[in-house]
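A reminder from the course coordinator: this example appears on the midterm review sheet, so study it carefully.

Given structure:
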């Protein structure tokens, strides 16, 4: 039996080589979209118009399916059997689970990106802080243009431009004290 040990170097190398890349995930998501029936991006007004009919009460839906099952005339008018309508209800419920899982995945990816940006931001702010201190030493003068650019574009630690203050209404001058 071969015993495998993990060193700090191999663990660091594994951390540097992700199993997937952002580009490969995007490619997979686009391929997945092609598999989803009725996949479309709806304009907001169109989606808003569809919502009321799409959100019918489930008991109302089941009662309507029962009416289709009970009357050949209703079935002919609707153009679908009770079994077809029930299959559509079941498929909708299953695709709703897919939607919920994709939403949870989006929330997780959003959190992952926020965490990555935060970690990067901390490193950048540390770089700025260290660089500001180092430029005070002549041997690190090469950092001066970088610190100047960082200072110019830094949005932290700067107050907003002062709003022009309107002059206070003129009041009667206060009398000078008599001595």
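Designed residues:
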């Amino acid at each position: 039996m071969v015993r495998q040990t993990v060193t700090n170097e191999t663990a660091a190398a594994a951390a540097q080589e992700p199993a997937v890349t952002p580009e490969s995930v995007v490619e997979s998501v686009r391929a997945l979209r092609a598999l989803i029936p009725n996949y479309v991006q709806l304009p907001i007004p169109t989606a808003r118009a569809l919502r009321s009919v799409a959100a019918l009460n489930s008991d109302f839906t089941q009662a309507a399916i029962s009416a289709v099952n009970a009357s050949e005339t209703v079935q002919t008018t609707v153009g679908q059997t009770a079994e077809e309508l029930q299959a559509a209800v079941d498929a909708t419920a299953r695709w709703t689970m897919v939607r919920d899982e994709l939403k949870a995945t989006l929330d997780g990816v959003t959190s992952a990106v926020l965490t990555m940006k935060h970690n990067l931001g901390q490193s950048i702010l540390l770089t700025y802080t260290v660089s500001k201190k180092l430029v005070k030493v002549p041997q690190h003068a090469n950092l001066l243009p970088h610190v100047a650019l960082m200072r110019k574009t830094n949005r932290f630690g700067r107050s907003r431009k002062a709003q022009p203050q309107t002059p206070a209404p003129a009041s009667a001058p206060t009398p000078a004290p008599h001595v």
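The helical segments are 8-16, 22-35, 44-54, 58-70, 72-78, 82-134, 144-153. The mean pLDDT is 87.
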